[in-house]
Write a structure and sequence with these properties.
With 226 residues, this protein is an alpha/beta fold. 44% of the residues lie in helices and 12% in strands. It is built from 10 helices and 6 strands, in the order βαααααβαβαβαβαβα. A 6-stranded parallel β-sheet has the order 3-2-1-4-5-6, with helices on both faces. Helix 6 links the parallel strand 2 and strand 3. The longest helix has 17 residues. The protein is globular and about 55 Å long.
Amino acid sequence: MYLIIFDVDGTLVDSQNSIYHGLQVGFEAVGLPMPDRKTALSIVGLSLEKAFADLLAPEHHDKIDEMSAAYRHAKITRREQGLEIDPMYPGAREAIEKLHARDDILLGVATGKARRGVKHMQDTHDLHGRFVTIQTADTSPSKPHPDMVLRAIAETGADPHRTLMIGDTGFDMAMAKAAGAHALGVSWGYHDHSRLVEEGADKIIDSFDELDQALIDLLKMNEETV
């Protein structure tokens, strides 16, 4: 069996506007100025507390809990109001369905989101039942710690050499390599090509149309079965 693990934000769904709004709420809650958009979104993929820690000067780290609580409250409220609808990237659904249909592939998720955020994504896009392992910030250290990938491997009984992490950030690439898995970067997310390469990407694709060839190149799948 092959195990293919997807990141969520910046890889499967375009969540930059909703994440940026949540960060704004967090900074406003403690009266601190919001970083510029590029800097703010550079932390996407990290767990929430780690993200705020990276954006704040050390003297403001005592405000992390309050900022995180404000972010989470805003998220929950907006979801209840039907305002948190992050669209899937072109080709993402088709890629998931095609891989899910194969009997030699298991699919998973490894994300800095909370479990309820993954459930919301699954509810929104009717993706329940596609992922046999879901790893989140609720139970694992923040990326790039390898725990999420290691847990996914343990839960599925997969071989690390037959495991592929697909993500848009250097955090995803570093996490995969630390777990002994392959790392496939996507160019449409939050970190640029050079950052992905620097953190260990084995290959980078520019659209989901290139995924089949990447699977052949990295996992040595039989081209006829992809």
